[in-house]
Amino acid sequence: MENLTEKVLLYRKTPEGLATLVKEIAPRVYQFPRRTMGWDEDACGDFYLFFHPRLLRLLDRFRDQGRPFESYLCAILNWQLRNFARERKQGERSWSASLRLDPGEGFTGSDSDPEEGGPPRFPPAGLCALVRSDADRKNFLYLLLKCCRDIDPCKVDPLAAVAGVTPERFRELATTLKAMRSSREKRLETFRERRNRAFALARLLESEAAVEPDGERRDALRSSIARARRRMASAMERMARVGIAPTNREIAIVLGVPKGTVDSGLYWLKRKLAPVYDPDCPRSA
Questions:
Q1: For labelling, which of 7, 61, 78, 96 has a CA lying 20 to 30 Å from the CA of 172?
Q2: What pLDDT is stored for residue 103 in this prediction?
């Protein structure tokens, strides 16, 4: 069977078979963040979209120096994943702001109320100016559904208008997603209860240890306190791993579109909206 290195070299000689190569390489790229860093499928999709434009350059730059293409690909993926992880971490603050769908602190200018000292306009004019085409509105709907758990009910109507859907349609979709998340919500509540019980027990034991005159009993209490703290830390760690926001796959299911469409729509919309929500992103004049 022809290995991947031979296929890449054949493509370099005769620019044919690119679609087959990409089809074979794509799953390796997509799964790489999950295997190396334990990321979820939404983050894997973001990394694939980040890496895909670099794929042709990677194929063109490969030279047969005795190492298989798989080894070269793994080295490049490691490097690009570090770059992407750094960029992703730096963008978390602005992405969190976008999930609020409200201008961040310091967002002024054209979005200020015409009357001096008035509250910021909602939705911000900068956002409305960027969400113009039908594709933008579809992508904005994906964003609304992604953060439907946290949207202020009084802001649903204007945000649905920007997304090009009726408030009733948006609420219907959000309700469906909520039902799909019910098992995760129950898990989160279970871990929250464990954390609270462990915290309460630790505080109770601490108060007992503070007044316990017997040294051996005090040492036993301190051991119990350490166990309670470990249980609390374990519950908090598990809480952090429970994804409560709808996944891209769930959004795709309720809308009847491919998951990749939601992945790419959110990926590019976040970058398009960065001038509105990220204070460190240069704004266009």
A1: 96
A2: 44
State CA 138 to chain mean position distance. Answer: 18
The contacts of residue 111 (CB under 8 Å, 6+ apart) are: 103, 120, 121, 124, 125, 126
Mean pLDDT by 10 residues, the chain (285 residues): 78 83 91 90 90 88 86 92 83 54 43 50 72 91 89 87 93 93 90 95 93 92 95 91 87 94 91 70 47
Q: Are 167 and 157 in contact (CB under 8 A)?
A: yes
Question: By the 8 A CB rule, do 263 and 248 touch?
Answer: yes
What is the pLDDT at residue 122?
64
What does the block give as tokens for 32? 């790489």
Q: What does the block give as tokens for 69?
A: 């293409």
The per-residue DSSP string of 146-202 comes to: HTTTT--GGGHHHHHHHHTS-HHHHHHHHHHHHHHTHHHHHHHHHHHHHHHHHHHHH
| Contact call for residues 224 and 205 (beta carbons, < 8 A) | yes
| Nearest Cα residue to 276 out of 140, 86, 88, 83 | 140
Distance CA 225, CA 220 (A): 9
Predicted structure pTM score:
0.69
Q: Which amino acid is at 71?
A: S
Output phi, psi for 152, to 5 deg: -65, 125
CB-based burial, 184-203: b 16+ in 10 Å, e otherwise: eeeebeebeebbeebbebbe
SS3 assignment, position 85: helix
In the prediction, which pLDDT does 134 show? 92
